[in-house]
């Protein structure tokens, strides 16, 4: 019987797909982070950026080695043509901390799905390493964000005095008695706000500097969608007298000179909106109130519409790289 964890075994669809996604995300990050490092003054934040860049370079190198060994084409991804390191500063130092937390979450969403589903020993070890390194980075990000006053901890709620069971009105949200939110509902509202204020600042910056009018219009629409969703999430917390996190658009400078190609900016926003849709699944899974569920459904539809239109533009411009796939079926004979 063959050893299913042997590195001589061919890559499964999961292993191939998740390695491909890891390559594309970290390949993009290499060029984004290299630009950020041209404009950073705070020593602690610079160290964070350097560590994140080092991890991205290492992850890309490892995937490349696996793909070469398995005779899988290396994705085109991105290159030095997609970044202008001489462009003026587009973000304040604080933004980089929020950005790194967002993108670390995105990386973990790839790795934590992969780990239970990969079997080949070298791929297993690689994704465990990716997860461990990303967790270590997130701990440093959180420490610096709190220490420098860039963020605040999630809101406090009363400690339960006893175990309780829910009643018929647990699902209410529009009529009748509407119960206060429980801890898991608050958790995901906080998480969505934290991620989306970063996404909003980034797309605001991108909409200022993009050269393509069609992409600019799309980015402006994406910012409006993100703003509307954030305001709805904040409203739910405020109705419970709970605080929410502030917007971050003040961390975008007045520069209108693009440091990035339209290709890498559009890909980045497609990636971010994909992560948001993934986050809705986590939020809906633990939500009980119908009003919150309806809010998520509407937000999901708005995000999905943006994602579809962004993908169409990416395809039309010949920028959308196809993940490893099944071969096309032969056409039936006449």
The end-to-end distance, rounded to whole angstroms, is 44 Å
Specify the biggest β-sheet. Answer: none
Helix vs. strand class? mainly alpha
Taken together, the total number of domains comes to: 2
The portion of residues forming beta strands comes to under 5%
Instruction: Specify the CATH class of the largest domain.
Output: Mainly Alpha
Rounded to the nearest angstrom, the radius of gyration is 22 Å
Low-pLDDT windows of residues:
none
Give the tally of β-strands.
Answer: 0
Within the CATH hierarchy, at the fold level, what is the topology of the largest domain? Ferritin
Quick take:
The protein is mostly helical.
List its traits:
single chain; 334 residues; mainly alpha; Ferritin; 2 domains; 62% helix
Notes on the structure:
- This is DUF3231 family protein.
- The mean pLDDT is about 95.
- With about 325 residues, this protein is mainly alpha-helical.
- The longest helix is centred in the first third of the chain and has 27 residues, at about 45-70.
- It has helices spanning about 15-35, 45-70, 95-115, 120-145, 185-210, 215-240, 260-285, 290-315.
- Helix 2 (about 45-70) packs parallel to helix 3.
- It starts with 12 loop residues before the first helix and ends in an 18-residue tail after the last helix.
- It folds into two domains: about 15-145, Up-down Bundle (Ferritin), CATH 1.20.1260; about 175-315, Ferritin (Up-down Bundle), CATH 1.20.1260.10.
């Amino acid at each position: 019987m063959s050893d299913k964890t042997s590195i001589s075994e061919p890559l499964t669809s999961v292993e191939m797909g998740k390695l491909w996604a890891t390559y594309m995300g970290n390949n993009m990050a290499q060029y984004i982070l290299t630009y950020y490092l041209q404009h950073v003054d705070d020593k602690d934040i610079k160290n964070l950026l350097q560590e994140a860049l080092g991890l991205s370079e290492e992850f890309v190198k490892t995937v490349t080695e696996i793909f070469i060994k398995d005779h899988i084409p290396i994705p085109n991804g991105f290159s030095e043509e997609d970044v202008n390191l001489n462009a003026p500063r587009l973000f304040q130092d604080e933004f980089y901390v929020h950005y790194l937390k967002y993108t670390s979450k995105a990386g973990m969403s790839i790795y934590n799905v992969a780990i239970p589903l990969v079997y080949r020993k070298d791929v297993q070890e690689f994704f465990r390493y990716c997860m461990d390194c990303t967790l270590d980075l997130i701990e440093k990000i959180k420490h610096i964000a709190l220490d420098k006053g860039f963020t605040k901890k999630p809101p406090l709620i009363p400690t339960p005095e006893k175990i309780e069971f829910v009643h018929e009105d647990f699902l209410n949200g529009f009529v009748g008695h509407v119960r206060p939110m429980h801890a898991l509902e608050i958790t995901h509202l906080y998480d969505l706000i934290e991620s989306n204020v970063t996404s909003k600042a980034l797309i605001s910056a991108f909409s200022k500097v993009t050269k393509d009018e069609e992409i600019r219009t799309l980015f402006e629409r994406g910012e409006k969608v993100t703003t509307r969703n954030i305001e709805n999430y904040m409203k739910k917390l405020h109705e419970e007298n709970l605080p929410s996190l502030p917007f971050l658009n003040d961390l975008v400078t007045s520069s209108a000179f693009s440091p990035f190609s339209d290709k890498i900016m559009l890909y980045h926003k497609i990636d971010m909106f994909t992560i948001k849709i993934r986050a809705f699944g986590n939020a809906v899974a633990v939500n009980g109130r119908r009003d919150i569920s309806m809010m998520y459904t509407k937000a999901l539809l708005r995000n999905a519409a943006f994602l579809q239109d962004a993908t169409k533009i990416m395809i039309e411009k010949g920028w959308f790289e196809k993940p490893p796939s099944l071969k096309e079926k032969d056409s039936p004979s006449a």
